[in-house]
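Write out the bound-state structure for NAP.
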Amino acid sequence: MRILVTGATGFIGSRLVRRLINRGHEVTCLVRSDGAITNPKAIGAKECIVADITNRESMMKAISIAKDVDVLIHLAALNPLIKDRRLQYDVNINGMRNLIDAIVSARLTLKRVIYAQGMGVFGNVHGAIVDEDSQYRPETWFTRLRSDAEMMLWDASKDAGFSISIAILGDVYGNGGWFTNIMVKGLIKSIFGLGFMIPGAGDYYRCLIHVDDAVDALALMADADYTGNERFIVCDDEPCMFREFVYYTADILGVKRPPRMPLWLARLFLGSDIVDTLTASVRASNAKVKHMLNLTLRYPDYRVGVRSVVDEIRSARGNRLAI
Ligand SMILES: NC(=O)c1ccc[n+]([C@@H]2O[C@H](COP(=O)([O-])OP(=O)(O)OC[C@H]3O[C@@H](n4cnc5c(N)ncnc54)[C@H](OP(=O)(O)O)[C@@H]3O)[C@@H](O)[C@H]2O)c1
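---
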């Protein structure tokens, strides 16, 4: 199959491109610049098209070059820690508009568009269990933006004749991304307990997924034969309280468990929107993705996953953890 991936240089995208190529697909990557560190050309992608999703003209051009594509996987986005609302709006909303318009204008005959969503769209359900039929109740500016972006895709799919699949991802951890760059780094570099700190009591439930499992799920969504629009929750078998996850990681790293930061202080540092997004308590069921797509998790819970990521970091650094 011919697959176009936006956000191909990202934490998830760069791994997904490799996985899709290994599964025999012809992959075209949409990248912001040729000089990206994980240049997809180096990993055997068919083509790299340079475009910024916030730039309408460059998107029109890029999608018309890509033309013969069966599946488009849209991963280009900014992480929730980026506070600049204008930038977030530009990438999430204008970027989605440009992408949809470019698909329509190039008359792509797509089998499917896949969009990566975050669990935050369910809002803070105080630890209740959600599944694909649960209502979105985004409570923060960021999660409302992400929900609106998804709605634009649902609307477009009615007129434009392509079906959509939404991967609602748990917090994706692995060697790279927020887990290594913020949490592991912050735990290791901690001096007098001041490094990574847990916002609030850490007693809120988070749904987690190892990046390899997230990538497997996205690849299955691209391959699978189902028709119509679908949402899939992609998380592991064991939602856990955030502090359990952090304490386990600290223990495996052999470093001190971090202190907690009162929520009012976290809000002062990070802003209420980010803190509310990161501390929403949700437990989600992964039954649908496992049964309908036959996803077999390599890392069914965070303990197996974190151990493997830390081993990976250690072996890449000659058994030293200094980052
Ligand atoms: N990681 C998680 O825990 C998590 C959880 C839930 C959902 N998701 C969703 O999964 C998707 C991928 O996440 P990720 O962790 O891989 O993100 P990431 O590492 O931050 O990568 C984001 C990608 O988007 C690209 N991008 C950003 N702005 C762009 C623009 N204006 N034009 C073109 N490309 C642009 C980046 O390109 P550059 O390399 O040029 O910056 C990068 O390739 C996102 O939609 C994210 O919201 C992630």
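---
The chain has two domains: 2-172+210-234, 174-206+238-283+299-316.
Residues 7-13, 32, 36, 52-54, 75-79, 91, 116, 118, 169, 171-172, 177 surround NAP (CB under 6 Å).
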